[in-house]
Hints:
The protein is of the alpha/beta class.
Amino acid sequence: MSYTAKDPEKRPLLALVDQADPPDVATYERGGGFRGLRRVLSGLSPAEVIDEVTKSKLRGRGGAGFSTGMKWSFVPKESQKERKKYIVANGDEMEPGTFKDRLLVEGNPLQLVEGMIISAYAIQASHGVIFLRGEYHLGLERLKIAVEQAKAAGFLGENILGSGFDFELIVHPSGGRYICGEETALLTALEGRRANPRTKPPFPQVSGLWGAPTVVNNIETFSNIPHIMANGIDWYLGLSACGDGGTKLYGVSGRAKRPGVYELPLGTRMGILLEECAGGMQDGYRLRAFLPGGASTAFLGAEHADIVLDYPTPEKAGSRLGTGLAILLDDRASPIGMIRNLEHFFAQESCGWCTPCRDGLPWVEKLLIDIEEGRGGPDDILRLQDACRLIGPMGRTFCAHAPGAIAPLESGLRLFREDFERAVQGGGAVVPSAQERAA
């Protein structure tokens, strides 16, 4: 079985992805593109679109996993003529180890454009923004071309396909901060201000961009919408291997033979992703643990190497599905070094607004550096545990940046306790010997 074969029936998201030459409007339509939009604008009401998306059981693919249809249902129901509303694609893909949205915007940007037009119609938004990671230069260029092509073909602008529905879409590159991926910080950045998260409530669906009702969804989430509206609820539910709908872009990075992104049924087992898609571990390396969905998820040990990658199962095991792109820790790498590297990233990417995050994360990084380099003591492990207790719980800070940063640390202290204790007893972090690896 090939996991890279183009198959619009089983792998709709990647079926038309072509990184060398992404489809133009004509090619996209020949491949089934804009069928969903034509169906929607030929007679479905906005409420009917929201109802179908809700029944499809599409959950947000950016990490939180909230029901997409339910999120849309919170938006006030006035028409676009009566009230200004916005729709925003969150493409600020800066989570370490996550690179699935890049593949979509570089390989088939029109799929995202169509998904946003349908979504805008559902909530009656008149304007949309694709907020893209600043380093995705090729994706930015191709998205701008796709928007212009869609406009020239009558899929954007005034009176789309003669429906009376108007929608304008622009592409906006991020200034380059991880916190811009937090939806309220993203909206603040779009308003031209420092990207600090906002308190919630009010939620963006009620008061978002410039105070208007706004829906923010991930790029992969929007890319699912055309296929749901073109092929129906039952087809979409049938793609999944679990209780929620659709496929998922999973991925692997680290010492795998074929690291990359793979479109698989939602609820696929980790063993299929790692062993059959990614080819297993490289020769001479063994899996010690992994972060199942990006840097802000908790470590799972090798005993979970065949865990079901749906939304509830990783939570029961103590982690999260997150973005669905796993980062592997092999038996030749120092877990302390990996955690220190992650905490360095989170410390430098704090927006600086909340004290536990701004001051706590650099302190955590310093403790880890001392332990890694052999200057730490047994009390430093206790201090790290205190940091987990004080910084980690939700509600201590405005947003989930600090809790996400603490997840790999707290789980790492549990899973790799012997490594930490040996490091503070003298010599710092060491890479396991061949004899230890064979044991």
